[in-house]
Design a protein that fits this description.
Blueprint (H helix, E strand, L loop, with lengths): L1 E3 L2 H11 L4 H15 L10 E3 L8 H7 L5 E5 L2 H9 L3 H16 L9 H5 L3 H23 L4 E5 H6 L1 H11 L6 H9 L15 H14 L1 H18 L12
Parallel strand pairs: 1-2, 3-4
């Protein structure tokens, strides 16, 4: 049973950002995880897909549930930047909101002054957010190990969907038959838009990405090169270990 972005976890972040006491937040987070883990039917395994703003609680949640496994899904940097520019103004505003959240959570994970951050363009800010969360994912993998945590490149998910679902089922200790895996591949998860609920598949996404890359080629290419240089200066690897698929 999958739970998509439970609001209670977002509320934990909001509470902490408003100055909630860490011990009390930890107590309520523990209770919330108990509730989220409770199956609706016998034999179910609960899989929670949090909002990305909950990433700063990932360490605490993994520590509270030593028997739980996790998947860290990410887009390659260039694909991520394209996805931001194709959203227009709202995408550019969102990455700045994400940065503000990272700063409030003490989760920027790199040394950049306020003056330096204010001097960046929207797409540079997007790259800073990507790099920061990429480092956070790498730190989680180092701390908890590849047995508990797997990583998955979103492009691999789209090109090797059946292999990914089979590997993820094994990682979460789900006993899925081949026909069940195929039902997932043929179902709405890979055929509808996650935000707007219209028909949308890997081919549609590729067309959108290609058009956005063409329109914003200069900006995307320059920021990608800049981000790689920033990563090098901050000691952040552009690669991440622990791949779900070899």
């Amino acid at each position: 049973m999958g739970l998509k972005e439970p609001v209670v976890l977002n509320d934990m972040i909001g509470w902490r950002r408003r100055g909630g006491h860490p011990a009390k937040i930890g107590e309520v987070l523990h209770q919330s995880l108990d509730l989220l883990a409770r199956p609706f039917r016998p034999g179910e395994v609960m899989v929670v897909k949090p909002s990305n703003i909950v990433n700063s609680l990932a360490d605490a949640m993994l520590a509270m549930r030593p028997g739980a496994s996790a998947l860290l899904l990410y887009a390659p940097l260039r694909s991520y930047l394209i996805s931001i520019v194709k959203k227009g103004l709202w995408g550019r505003l969102w990455v700045r909101e994400l940065l503000v959240g990272l700063l409030k959570d003490g989760a920027l994970h790199m040394q950049l002054s306020t003056e330096e951050l204010l001097g960046l363009t929207d797409i540079q800010i997007a790259a800073v957010g990507w790099l920061s969360q990429h480092r956070a994912f790498a730190d989680l993998l180092t701390k908890y190990g590849n047995a508990r945590i797997k990583t998955l490149n979103s492009e691999v998910l789209l090109t090797r969907s059946a292999d990914c679902i089979a590997a993820l089922a094994a990682h979460y200790r789900l006993e899925l038959a081949d026909e069940q895996i195929q039902a997932v591949i043929d179902g709405p998860a890979f055929g509808r838009h996650s935000k707007f609920d219209g028909n949308f598949d890997a081919e549609s996404r590729a067309q959108e990405q290609e058009e956005a890359a063409r329109l914003h080629h200069d900006e995307i290419e320059k920021v990608t090169i800049w981000a790689e240089a920033l990563a090098s200066s901050q000691g952040i690897s552009m690669m991440i270990e622990g791949a779900l698929l070899s």
